[in-house]
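Think of the structure tokens as a kind of shorthand, similar to the way a musician reads notation: each symbol stands for something richer, in this case the local conformation of the backbone. In the example below we present two proteins back to back. Begin with the first one, reading the sequence and then the tokens, and try to describe in your own words what changes along the chain.
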Amino acid sequence: MHVLLTEVRRLIIGTIAPHAALDPDDKRLRHIVAQLNSVESTLDLIA
């Protein structure tokens, strides 16, 4: 679980966050960020 949690965090920080910063009004990006934050939270509870 810890490895998967690290991968999700790297995806959020390295890929999704920079794109979201460029276009904060993009509905799809906001949805992706919300979903990945939910996954990260769940994995954090499990790990």
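Once you have a description of the first chain, move to the second and do the same.
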Amino acid sequence: MKSLTEFIAQSLVASPDQVQVDQSHQGNRVRLHLSVAKEDMGRVIGKGGRVANAIRVLLRVAAEREGQQVTLDVMEP
């Protein structure tokens, strides 16, 4: 999940070297914390949160294939 999130975020932002994803586990639930540069927040969140929600949908599908649940939090810099 972490590598998928990094790949998607790095593809969207202007500063891919500042993308950071932290991962924590609680049973079969995975929690991801995505941090990007301040000027890239709009690109990751999107208009009305559409891009962030699309990333969450992709992560849920990938997690379901592995029998897990995933949540994504976009952290403010």
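Compare your description with these statements about the second chain. The chain has a mean pLDDT of 95.
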